[in-house]
Automatic annotation (TrEMBL):
<dbReference type="InterPro" id="IPR036318">
    <property type="entry name" value="FAD-bd_PCMH-like_sf"/>
</dbReference>
<dbReference type="InterPro" id="IPR016164">
    <property type="entry name" value="FAD-linked_Oxase-like_C"/>
</dbReference>
<feature type="domain" description="FAD-binding PCMH-type">
    <location>
        <begin position="51"/>
        <end position="229"/>
    </location>
</feature>
<dbReference type="GO" id="GO:0071949">
    <property type="term" value="F:FAD binding"/>
</dbReference>
<keyword id="KW-0274">FAD</keyword>
<dbReference type="InterPro" id="IPR016166">
    <property type="entry name" value="FAD-bd_PCMH"/>
</dbReference>
<keyword id="KW-0285">Flavoprotein</keyword>
<dbReference type="GO" id="GO:0016491">
    <property type="term" value="F:oxidoreductase activity"/>
</dbReference>
<dbReference type="InterPro" id="IPR016171">
    <property type="entry name" value="Vanillyl_alc_oxidase_C-sub2"/>
</dbReference>
<protein>
    <submittedName>
        <fullName>FAD-binding protein</fullName>
    </submittedName>
</protein>
<dbReference type="InterPro" id="IPR006094">
    <property type="entry name" value="Oxid_FAD_bind_N"/>
</dbReference>
<dbReference type="InterPro" id="IPR004113">
    <property type="entry name" value="FAD-bd_oxidored_4_C"/>
</dbReference>
<dbReference type="Pfam" id="PF02913">
    <property type="entry name" value="FAD-oxidase_C"/>
</dbReference>
<dbReference type="InterPro" id="IPR016169">
    <property type="entry name" value="FAD-bd_PCMH_sub2"/>
</dbReference>
<dbReference type="Pfam" id="PF01565">
    <property type="entry name" value="FAD_binding_4"/>
</dbReference>
<keyword id="KW-0560">Oxidoreductase</keyword>
<dbReference type="InterPro" id="IPR051914">
    <property type="entry name" value="FAD-linked_OxidoTrans_Type4"/>
</dbReference>
Length: 498
């Protein structure tokens, strides 16, 4: 994967590194500042490991006051800041910069309050996704969005990328399950948005922050919706002779007005890898497998299972199996949730993509990916949230073979272009980061991007928060009409522009 073009490092910041480190130690004492090269190696990349860069310094604050002081200090001296959660981002969203403070929020790891009466939990951004569900499990509650990395990914990172998961078809993405935020702007101001109520007054700044990829502010507290576990939940394995047949079955299930708790799809390559890894009982003689979960009152679940079986039969399903116990249901899902590491056992490297399409275009897009696989001479394993059209094709390659890494990157770009061509979008839950940044013009025109940059300027006029991410062309706010230009000359011409 070719290295992405990033903003040129600020020479004055690099020259003053020692002073900056000492100043930050005054703000975050003890072991809260990491500046030794060997210790910073742990933070040089995120889940998109093809890109690596050591930061200027790593700062791990423990209090909101420390976050506020760090950001205020960085704004005063024009120092860039890259926020980071658990580092599981698959789009390079937490990729450090040579001249930037890497602000790591992992020490914000407390569940602050559980309010069962209002069905909310108040947590810090470093709490893991699964940690929220575990904290409320004894009372029969859980947190619905459940990305496959839920054991490690943080709630703060979920908010930054608007993460999804296998049960988001029925219960929504992160944005549908976050009710309130506390955040700190680049000038150190602490702001609260929303709360325990179902809707916020005024402009939907809360919705704007969810999915903002660390470009607007740093989140320090999150109020999330918790749900009561359904009375009954049963999962089905349904096998098909082709990917297209499975894709059509998904469209027909939704078209019939059935909204399962989740619908996941795996192709033959992914099925075999997952079964070898987990022994979940997946059939190995099918080309595609759907995992369909129905939940609710027991009578309703039994009725819906019959309807789904009939729809699957009409689409040529060759096998159907329904879980008969909670343990078996969990086993069905264990194979799906382990699919990514399972594929890692059959290929030296893989490139995980993330695009979203209209459900009815699934058969067409799956056929298109097969053609692209032949074009680029690379295999692809399909594992994705079929119910909401969120694709996660895994492109298999060997970085030790000359040219394969670059072919994998171009293969991924072609998949995302195909998603946009059929009416979809570049990302469903992984974010844009640096991975999809240069593809943004495939989806947005110049006016669209200009409007997005204006929002960035309203929060962060100096572009200090996570620069180089999301926007394919970096422009100063002055270029967006924020400064008066007289006789063709921009004020302060000595300001670096990139």
């Amino acid at each position: 994967m070719t290295s992405p073009n990033m903003p040129d490092p600020k020479t004055d910041v690099l020259a003053n590194r020692d002073r900056i480190v000492e100043d930050l130690r005054d703000i975050v004492p003890g072991e809260g500042v990491v500046d030794a090269t060997n210790q910073m190696r742990a933070f040089e990349t995120d889940g998109l490991t093809a890109y690596r860069q050591l930061p200027l310094v790593v700062v791990l604050p423990e209090t909101v006051a420390q976050v506020s002081r760090v950001l205020k200090y960085c704004q005063k001296y024009g120092i860039r800041v890259v926020p980071r959660g658990s580092g599981t981002s698959l789009s390079g969203g937490a990729l450090p910069l040579e001249d930037a403070v890497l602000l790591v929020m992992s020490r914000f790891n407390k569940v602050l309050e559980i309010d069962y009466d209002n069905r909310v939990a108040v947590v810090q951004p470093g709490v893991t996704n699964l940690g929220v569900s575990n904290a409320v499990a004894e009372r029969g509650f859980y947190y619905a969005p459940d990305p496959s990395s839920q054991i490690a990914c943080s709630i703060g990172g979920n908010v930054a990328e608007n993460a999804g998961g296998v049960h988001c078809l029925k219960y929504g993405l992160t944005t549908n399950n976050v009710l309130g935020l506390q955040m700190v702007t680049i000038d150190g101001e602490v702001i609260r948005l929303g709360g325990r109520h179902l809707d916020s007054e005024g402009y939907d700044i809360l919705g704007l922050m969810t999915g903002s990829e660390g470009l607007l502010a740093v989140v320090t507290e999150i109020t999330v919706r918790i749900l009561q576990k359904p009375e009954t939940a049963r999962a089905m394995l349904v096998g098909f002779p082709s990917n297209e047949a499975a894709g059509q079955c998904v469209a027909d299930i939704i078209g019939a007005g059935i909204i399962p708790g989740g619908i996941e799809m795996m192709d033959r390559l992914a099925i075999k890898a997952a079964e070898d890894f987990v022994q979940a009982g997946y059939p190995l003689d099918v080309e595609a497998l759907l995992i369909v979960e129905l939940d609710g009152p027991e009578a309703e679940v039994d009725h819906l299972i019959g309807k789904v079986e009939a729809i699957a039969g009409n689409n040529g399903a060759t096998m159907s199996r329904v879980s008969t116990s909670e343990e078996e249901r969990q086993t069905f899902w264990a194979g799906r949730k382990a699919a990514f590491p399972a594929v890692g056992r059959i290929s030296p490297d893989y490139y995980c993509m993330d695009g979203t399409i209209p459900r009815k275009r699934l058969p067409e897009v799956l056929a298109g990916m097969r053609e692209l696989s032949e074009k680029h001479e690379l295999a692809v394993a399909n594992v994705f949230h079929a119910g909401d059209g969120n694709l996660h094709p895994l492109i298999l390659y060997d970085a030790n073979n000359p040219g394969e890494l670059e072919r994998a990157e171009e293969f991924g770009n072609d998949i995302l272009r195909l998603c946009v061509e059929v009416g979809g979008v570049l990302t469903g839950e992984h974010g844009v980061g640096v991975e999809k940044r240069d593809l943004m013009p495939a989806m947005f025109n110049k006016d669209d991007l200009d409007q997005q940059i204006r929002i960035k300027c309203a929060f962060d006029e100096q572009h200090l928060l996570n620069p180089g991410k999301v926007f394919p062309e970096l422009r100063r706010c002055a270029e967006m009409g924020r400064m008066h230009i007289s006789r063709g000359q921009l004020p302060f011409p000595d300001i670096p522009r990139f």
